[in-house]
Amino acid sequence: xxxxxxxxxxxxxxxxxxxxxxxxxxxxxxxxxxxxxxxxxxxxxxxxxxxxxxxxxxxxxxxxxxxxxxxxxxxxxxxxxxxxxxxxxxxxxxxxxxxxxxxxxxxxxxxxxxxxxxxxxxxxxxxxxxxxxxxxxxxxxxxxxxxxxxxxxxxxxxxxxxxxxxxxxxxxxxxxxxxxxxxxxxxxxxxxxxxxxxxxxxxxxxxxxxxxxxx
Length: 215
Prior knowledge:
alpha+beta
């Protein structure tokens, strides 16, 4: 390369340097130094997830608590459960046998503090086996048990009504599992006739019970 060519290339290099020097020497913007590290994005995602979980857990706590079951709703449930517990018993289905019916009625009437009657259901094919005292929501309740010749059993659950409690003289029907229940409430007691029988049969017996208790 000649001396002339050297001078020519040197001049071009100097010209390029002068042209781009302002850009080459420009300070780096501060925002470039503040660029978030990669782990920040993961941290943000974790916070969002945690907040979402906390809200999800808090929502049920903010919902109003379910209203307690009313005595009217509890009556068929408790009667059906008592039926399921005691009706399968072979040796001790009742606490006091039907042979001591007078004693049974006086004893349970005293414990419930209401005068009780024991319906006679022989015309529907059911004989009294006896009865027992059971715990209720607010005190003792009574259960009378009946049986037909085939061994099918019905139970009459009797619970005193609280003062001021709404009455329901008409029948209502409920089903708790395999147990059918007809129930009603009068001025003194709530009654529930339970059995693992068809609805028609239970309705006929319940009508007979109602007539005798209200007479």
